[in-house]
Amino acid sequence: MKETISTKNAPAAVGPYSQAIKHGNLLFISGQIPLDPKTGNLVEGDIEVQTRMVLENIKAILEADGMTVENILKCTCFLKDMGDFERFNSVYKTYFEESPPARECVEVSRLPKDVSVEISAICGS
């Protein structure tokens, strides 16, 4: 009962994984990095610009399954530099104004393509 969810409105997988997998009422969105789905290129810019692109990609995947950010139960956020935490949060909170999902946010030594942020999500319908 596993279903693959994908959309051209989010970046194609850059490895052996799916954009998202649905199982029952749960949707598991793979870690998204700030790739422009139209060009496949990384977006240029600071942590705010990158965070916005990542969250827009997550929204596109949610929409492909008829969901919205309100369906996100939990996010896992990876930052290259925890010094960006406040600036990251300034963008993140605009997507979750009411009832934000559970989350953890950790600093990691390196992310794919040397980006500054990656976010994965677990969602429910």
Q: What do you see in this structure?
A:
It is a single chain. This protein starts with a strand and ends with a strand. It is of the alpha+beta class and 125 residues long. Helix content is 23%, strand content 30%. It has helices at residues 47-64, 85-95; strands at residues 2-5, 20-23, 26-32, 72-79, 102-107, 117-124.
Helix share bin: 10-25%
Average pLDDT reading: 97
User: Order of SSEs, N→C?
Assistant: EEEHEHEE
The count of β-strands is 6
Q: How would the global form be characterised?
A: globular
- In whole angstroms, the N-to-C terminal distance is 16 Å
Radius of gyration: 14 Å
Tell me the fraction of residues in β-strands, as a range. 25-35%
| Major β-sheet annotation | 6 strands, mixed
How are the strands of the biggest sheet laid out side by side?
Answer: 1-2-3-6-4-5
- Spans of at least 5 consecutive residues whose pLDDT stays below 50 are none
Structural class comes to: alpha+beta
Total of helices: 2
